[in-house]
Design a protein that fits this description.
single chain; 850 residues; alpha+beta; 8-stranded mixed beta sheet; elongated
């Protein structure tokens, strides 16, 4: 028999050490040997290893060893980048992991689900994901979604276990049973569960299902890049084979020809593209956690920056989620009395309002989670304590949840009397229907509703009734209710919301407020938040129009009021049918379908249910609307930096491929060998994967319209722009080569190779600087801080100087010393490349805007 107060901390720690954490064995984290194997399977590394072997076969021991060292350095750098990415993703998984509410040492605590042990008492509420298998100690109108185990979509009822029911003989789900299972969801009611199995000993563990594994499908951006890489890899393979054949036939020396062919393939192959597509979103998501946004699906960041419509709820997102009772209206229908809060200190609550507040508390959860119900409980304890109206010893006998047809909650209580006391609260018009108020009284009370709503208050109606007998009718309409009155609750607007809404508008993003509140209340909040003038749509209107009409209505709507959670899904589909990229916020069980259907689902972390968090791509730890806007800005920043990195990668591979290919076409000695390209990879990899990832967002990133998600990340215009940059470098290298061989003082082959290499490194620095800047904004970009980019540029230049001045490395690279004037030619060429590439980008922007 479980102790009502739960386990002690010391006993829980002992069981955790004995049984292990409540997690399932997963294989999503790769081991180091596996990562090494996967790395060596990539074409670039396979070519590097093959080149090192060919050097050794040719007897060039020093060059073979040097290349091997470079290979190890490139592998180490790639391991570092992969490690940062996997650690970032792992940390995000930990942050977005589920939690459980348990009894420990007689008090309720929230702990990570992995720390749940056998014997723990779980406190279950609507929206929770059950953390472990167990038997029900008690259940109040408890329904659980067990589709994970059974495949049945309909939720099943749970009851308390009988004293004789200790073991689940069938070991599977089902209706009207006293056992619940890990990974299933509470969709209604409350209960307590004594844990009997955790981790791999649970039902879901035994059948090998992994809940924590978040599957990542390939995004359009990844698919586009994969096609580009495959195309260039095929071209590299063809040209590599052609070069080996031509040089082999021409010289009869096949091993050196193979080295030249490998160098060409390495020069053409842009293996950095998959790296940046993995590193940028993962590190961006990790950085976004500091802004209060947890990323459950990394690929959502690609879409977030392209959002065109942001559908947000009100409570806790636009407002502070600090609800308090602000006004009460009670008394006779023809002369209701209004009471404004807070009352002066020491002032008792007038008797006419006692029943109203009493039944508002009784219609709320005994242990409230919703801020509105918390406000009722707080007011009740403040003004009804000692009056006999709190009824802490009563037992809830039955409850009726909100439904799409009736926006009200009703609960039946059993106390010392023979009958049940019935309390109901909800939308004023719904509770009036339950009370069958006559038209004259309804008109008076609706005037009161509008007066409270005009102050921006959330308005609820309250009623009570009595019921004899133990059975309960199927509908709330079957009770005889008596109208109590109205309660208005205030929830201040968050301080940064108007600025965030204004930022969305400047970014071309429509903000639509979707709430269950009264229309006038919703409009007051929308005006305070800075939403523009627009139409208002109600849930009742939605029921009366078809999908085509709804799509047309939503073009001008910016406030949706009296919306049931189930109607959010229809709104999402209508907006998507109109071609919008939709981000949707939500927190409840019924919000999950809309969150899953939206392009980007955003769940509330503080007040959201586990069901909503499981369905969403992003989770707001602070439930703040401004955090969503920061997420959009980060998504746009990631996308912009990806474009910069991909343009740089494309541009730098053109001169590398050119100086690997042109000597073969002209019958000249090769300038770049695999050894040199491996050294260049030590510069290119951190440049594209670290320097550009750290690039700050451009000042106008939120002043631009959302990008077209159907347009490629790296389209034809971007490709031509990058190609011209690469050609600028190639022309500069050709000029340096011509100066070295046909100038006043002809340089040796080793000096020429060294001069071309240094020029390429300096020009690479120029490409980094040019692609950091937006088109036409080069000078302004120099004032934008990016310490990482400048450190990488300096380290690259230092490495180039080392290859010239360190005798051992110079000999291994087959270079010869360069004079200061010769090195000045390389620097001057790099500066010329910088000016030409920046000028071409400025010219291209001018032509596009002309």
């Amino acid at each position: 028999m479980a102790e009502p107060g739960g386990l002690s901390d010391s006993e829980a720690k002992r069981r955790l050490a004995t049984d292990g954490p409540n997690v399932l064995e997963q294989a999503h984290r790769r081991t180091v040997p596996r990562r090494l194997f996967d790395l060596l399977r990539q074409p670039m590394f396979a070519l590097l290893v093959l080149a090192a072997a060919l050097y050794l076969l040719l007897g060039d021991f020093s060059e073979g060893v040097t290349l091997a060292v470079f290979v190890l350095a490139v592998i180490g750098l790639t391991f570092y980048q992969e490690g940062r990415t996997e650690n970032a993703i792992g940390a995000l998984r930990e942050l977005t992991g589920t939690r459980a509410r348990v009894m420990r040492d007689g008090t309720a605590r929230d702990i990570p689900a992995r720390e749940v042990v056998c014997g723990d008492i779980l406190l279950l509420a609507e929206g929770d994901r059950i953390a472990a298998d167990g038997r029900m100690l008690d259940a109040h109108d408890l329904q659980v979604d067990e589709s994970l185990l059974t495949g049945e979509s309909m939720p099943v009822n749970k009851r308390a276990a009988l004293p004789s029911e200790h073991d689940d003989a069938d070991g599977f789900g089902g209706d009207d049973r006293p056992w619940a299972y890990a990974g299933t969801f509470v969709v209604r009611g409350q209960g307590r569960l004594c844990v009997t199995a955790t981790g791999n000993r649970s039902q879901v563990g035994r059948i090998g299902r992994s809940l924590a594994q978040v599957g990542e499908c390939q995004t359009p951006l990844q698919a586009q890049t994969a096609r580009l890489v495959k195309t260039l890899a095929g071209l590299a393979l063809i040209l590599c084979a052609l070069m080996i054949a031509v040089l082999g036939v021409r010289s009869g020396q096949w091993l050196p020809a193979a080295l030249s062919g490998i160098a060409l393939a390495m020069a053409i192959l842009p293996e950095e593209y998959p790296v940046v597509l993995t590193v940028f979103p993962a590190l961006g998501a990790r950085r976004l956690t500091r802004d209060g946004v947890l990323t459950r699906r990394i690929n959502a960041l690609e879409t977030l920056g392209a959002t065109t419509v942001l559908c947000t709820d009100k409570t806790g997102t636009l407002t502070e989620n600090r609800m308090r009772v602000n006004a009460m209206v009670a008394g006779p229908a023809l002369a209701p009395k209004t009471l404004h809060w807070p009352l002066p200190e020491g002032t008792p609550l007038p008797d006419v309002f006692h029943g109203l507040l009493e039944h508002a508390v009784l219609a709320s959860a005994p242990q409230p989670f919703d801020p509105m119900e918390t406000a009722f409980h707080h007011a009740g304890h403040e003004y009804l304590k000692g009056s006999g109206h709190l009824h802490g010893d009563w037992r809830m006998a039955h409850s009726y949840a909100l439904t799409p047809d009736l926006n009200a909650v009703t609960q039946a209580w059993k106390g010392g009397e023979a009958h049940h006391v019935i309390s109901s609260k909800g939308a004023p018009e719904a509770v009036m229907d339950l009370c069958h108020l006559p038209d004259a009284a309804r008109a008076v009370w609706m005037q009161q509703v509008e007066a409270l709503a005009a102050r921006g208050l959330r308005v609820l109606g309250v009623a009570h009734g009595r019921h004899a007998g133990e059975g309960f009718p199927a509908s709330q309409h079957d009770f005889d209710f008596v109208w109590e009155g109205l309660i208005g609750l205030s929830d201040p607007l968050r301080e940064g919301v108007p600025a965030a809404v204004a930022e969305c508008r400047s970014a071309g993003i429509r903000v639509i407020l979707i709430t269950g509140d009264y229309p006038l209340t919703a409009r007051v909040i929308a005006d305070g938040a800075g939403l523009p003038e627009g139409d208002l749509l109600t849930g009742a209107e939605m029921l009366a129009i078809d999908d085509d009409a709804l799509r047309d209505r939503l073009r001008t709507v910016n406030v949706c009021a009296r919306i049931a959670p189930e109607q959010k899904l229809r709104i999402v589909h209508a907006l998507q049918a109109a071609g919008e990229v939709v981000a949707m916020t939500g927190d409840g069980v019924n919000d999950a379908p809309a969150l899953r259907a939206a392009h980007v689902g955003v769940a509330m972390g503080a007040r959201g249910t586990d069901v909503a968090r499981e369905a969403a791509a992003l989770v707001l730890t602070d439930d703040d609307f401004s955090s969503i806007v920061r997420g959009i800005r980060t998504g746009r920043r990631i996308f912009a930096n990806l474009r910069k990195a991909m343009a740089y990668i494309f541009a730098i591979h053109i001169p590398i491929a050119g100086i690997a290919l042109l000597p073969m076409l002209l019958g000249l000695p090769p300038l770049l060998l695999p050894l040199h390209i491996a050294l260049l990879e030590l510069i290119i990899d951190p440049s594209c994967a670290i320097a550009f990832e750290r690039e700050p967002a451009e000042s106008g990133v939120m002043a631009q319209p959302p990008r077209d998600t159907r347009a490629p990340l790296f389209g034809a215009a971007d490709m031509f722009s990058a190609a011209f940059q690469g050609l600028c470098v190639l022309v500069g290298l050709a000029g340096v080569y011509a100066w070295a061989n046909f100038g006043h003082d002809t340089l040796s082959e080793a000096q020429t190779r060294a001069l071309v290499f240094v020029t390429l490194v300096v020009s690479n620095a120029a490409l980094i600087l040019v692609n950091r800047a937006p088109a036409g904004g080069f000078l302004a970009s120099l004032r934008v801080p990016n310490r990482t980019a400048y450190v990488i540029i300096l380290l690259a230049l230092a490495l180039a100087a080392l290859t010239i001045h360190w005798p051992w490395l110079r000999a291994a690279m087959d270079f010869a010393p360069l004079t200061l004037s010769q090195q000045s030619v390389a620097v001057a060429t790099g500066v010329a490349v910088l000016v030409a590439a920046a000028g071409l980008r400025w010219l291209g922007k001018s032509l596009r805007t002309a």
